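Re: that backbone. C-alpha cells:
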C-alpha cells in the first residue's frame, strides 16, 4: 500500500510539472498571435474599358471598318505601319471563333491602338491589359501606349500563347520594361527602360513586329476581346 501511494504521488507531481511547462496561449491580437489574412490589394485597378468587336454580316471575313467594326462607341481605332491592314471575321458570342481582327494581309509590321473619347487613362499602379488571341508562326502582339507628351512605347512582354486555340492572357503594366517606339514604322529604338509615366495615356493597343504572310499557316495574328484595367486620368 505504501509503495502504491508513493508511485501515485510521483505520477501526479510529474503531470503537474508538465502542465506548468506548457506555454500560455497568446491573447487575441497579442504577441505571438497568428497574423490576419491580408486584405485584397486596394491598388488593383478596375475595368476601364472593353472592346469585343462588331462582327460582319454572318461573321464572314471582310476588310476592317475603323468605325463600323468597333463595338465600343467610346473608342476610336487607329492603324499604324506602312503596310498595315486588318480584316474582320468571326461571330460575337462564339468562343471557338469570336469576332476578331486578322492581320494576314498586312504587308509590314503593324500596330493598332484605341483612343477613348472619355479622355486619357491612368495605367499606373496595378493596371493591366487582357486580350484573347490565337497566333500563327512566331507572331506575338506587344502592348503599346501613347503618352501625354506624344511619345510611344512598346512593352517587352507579349500575348500569343497558342497557335492551336484561343487563349486569354493578362499583361500587368507594372511587370514590363518599355522600348521607345517609332509608331510610323512600328520599330523600336534604343534600350529598354524600367519605368515610364503612365499617369496619362492617350492611346492603348498592340504591335506585331513581324510582317504577315497571307492566309493559311505561316504568320499572322488573330485578336479578339480586349480589356483594359486602369483609371480615368486626373
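Recovered sequence:
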Amino acid at each position: 500500500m505504501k509503495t502504491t501511494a508513493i508511485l501515485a504521488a510521483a505520477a501526479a507531481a510529474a503531470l503537474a510539472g508538465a502542465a506548468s511547462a506548457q506555454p500560455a496561449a497568446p491573447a487575441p491580437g497579442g504577441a505571438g498571435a497568428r497574423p490576419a489574412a491580408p486584405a485584397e490589394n486596394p491598388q488593383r485597378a478596375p475595368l476601364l474599358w472593353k472592346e469585343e468587336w462588331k462582327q460582319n454580316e454572318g461573321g464572314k471575313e471582310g476588310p476592317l471598318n475603323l468605325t463600323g467594326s468597333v463595338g465600343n462607341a467610346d473608342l476610336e481605332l487607329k492603324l499604324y505601319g506602312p503596310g498595315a491592314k486588318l480584316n474582320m471575321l468571326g461571330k460575337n458570342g462564339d468562343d471557338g471563333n469570336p469576332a476578331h481582327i486578322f492581320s494576314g494581309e498586312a504587308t509590314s509590321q503593324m500596330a493598332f491602338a484605341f483612343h477613348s473619347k472619355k479622355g486619357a487613362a491612368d495605367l499606373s499602379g496595378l493596371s493591366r491589359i487582357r486580350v484573347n488571341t490565337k497566333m500563327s508562326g512566331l507572331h506575338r502582339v506587344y502592348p503599346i501606349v501613347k503618352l501625354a507628351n506624344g511619345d510611344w512605347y512598346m512593352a517587352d512582354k507579349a500575348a500569343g500563347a497558342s497557335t492551336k486555340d484561343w487563349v486569354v492572357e493578362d499583361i500587368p503594366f507594372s511587370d514590363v520594361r518599355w522600348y521607345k517606339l517609332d509608331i510610323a514604322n512600328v520599330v523600336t529604338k534604343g534600350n529598354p527602360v524600367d519605368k515610364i509615366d503612365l499617369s496619362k495615356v492617350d492611346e492603348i493597343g498592340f504591335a506585331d513586329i513581324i510582317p504577315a504572310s497571307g492566309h493559311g499557316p505561316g504568320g499572322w495574328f488573330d485578336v479578339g476581346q480586349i480589356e483594359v484595367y486602369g483609371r480615368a486620368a486626373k
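Confidence is low (pLDDT under 50) at residues 1-30. The longest helix spans residues 2-21.
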